[in-house]
Design brief:
heterodimer; A: alpha/beta; Rossmann fold; 44% helix; globular; B: mainly alpha; 6 helices; Chemotax_Pase_CheZ (chain B); Chemotaxis protein CheZ (chain B); Sig_transdc_resp-reg_receiver (chain A); Chemotaxis protein CheY (chain A); Bact_response_regulator (chain A)
Chain lengths: 127, 182
């Protein structure tokens, strides 16, 4: 599937090493426009300032979790269509179902590899 | 307190001979014995040792584990990123080998952090043993209510489904999750 490698991607995680890992994996996949935020509040501020082609977010962050961020994004008229992938260790079925109901486009369980990330991005953003 | 139960020769009738007073005295004796027992059990907790030595040690060791892990991760990632940026020319292999050696060296953190974590685990085991003994000795029951901050934290975790990583790997596999999104 063809991916728009020029689209900006927002990575949201409070663990800087994970941000760095995802950044590097995205770079290997050919994405150069990658921004990051350390929690949902910071992510929302970034989302209001730039149009992103994809949000990749962790779940467990403070003060605003990835789940709350997802609900904010889906409730905002200007942001509601932004593709959103949850990348998280919160892997109970109830979490996955809650995220799906809230409008997440895909869900990756940590730890993951580059192939999984690529497959999910293609599934969500591929045209 | 046993002397209270002895009648005094020639003395007028003492209240201690009154069954009601004897009952009170017996209860006081039991309370005194319980307090003595409780003091022994509290001493066995060695709370001062825990708060003065073991808990600060556990904090310090875990803090060191965190910084050693972060430091090693940083070194490994820097080496990997540097390898990705190596030019495709003569000397490439030597460059890669240099960075790989750096990664090997950084992985030595696991030995040190393993030893630090073992010390913390041993301290926790000691807490557990002493608290269990104390709890049994005083027949402790947990209070029904929890403090408001803890209650708030639990409510937030429940509402936002904050479970954290599961022991022994993910609760739901990636394949099962994919099936939910298919």
């Amino acid at each position: 599937m063809a991916l728009d490698l020029s689209m900006p991607i927002l990575v949201v995680d409070d663990y800087q090493t994970m941000v760095r890992i995802i950044r590097n994996l995205l770079k290997q996949l050919g994405f150069e426009e990658v921004d990051d935020a350390s929690d949902g509040t910071a992510a929302l501020a970034r989302l209001k300032g730039r149009k992103y082609g994809l949000v990749i977010s962790d779940w467990n962050m403070e003060p605003m979790t990835g789940y709350e961020l997802l609900r904010h994004v889906r409730a905002d008229e200007a942001l509601r269509t932004t593709p959103f992938i949850m990348v998280t260790a919160e892997s109970k079925t109830e979490n996955v179902i809650a995220a799906k109901k809230a409008g997440v486009n895909n869900y990756i369980v940590k730890p993951f590899n580059a192939a999984t990330l690529k497959t999910k991005i293609e599934a969500v953003c591929g045209s | 307190m046993g002397f209270l139960r002895k009648p005094i020769a020639g003395a007028p009738v003492s209240p201690v001979h009154d069954p009601m007073s004897m009952s009170v005295i017996n209860e006081l004796v039991e309370i005194a014995e319980y307090i003595t027992h409780m003091r022994e059990e509290i001493a066995a907790l060695r709370a001062n040792e825990m708060t003065r030595d073991r808990i600060p040690m556990a904090h310090e060791e875990l803090g060191n584990v965190l910084s050693a892990t972060a430091g090693a991760t940083n070194t490994i990632m820097e080496a990997a990123e540097a390898m990705l940026c190596l030019p495709d020319e003569a000397g490439y292999r030597a460059g890669v080998e240099g960075h790989i050696n750096t990664i090997f060296e950084a992985c030595a953190f696991q030995d040190i952090t393993g030893q630090r974590i073992s010390k913390v685990v041993e301290a926790l085991r000691q807490f557990e043993l002493r608290l269990a003994r104390f709890s049994n000795a005083v027949k402790a029951r947990d209070a029904a209510s929890i403090d408001p901050a803890e209650s708030q934290r639990r409510a937030r975790a429940e509402t936002l489904l904050l479970n954290g990583p599961q022991i022994g790997g993910p609760a739901t596999s990636q394949d099962d999750i994919d099936a939910l999104f298919a």
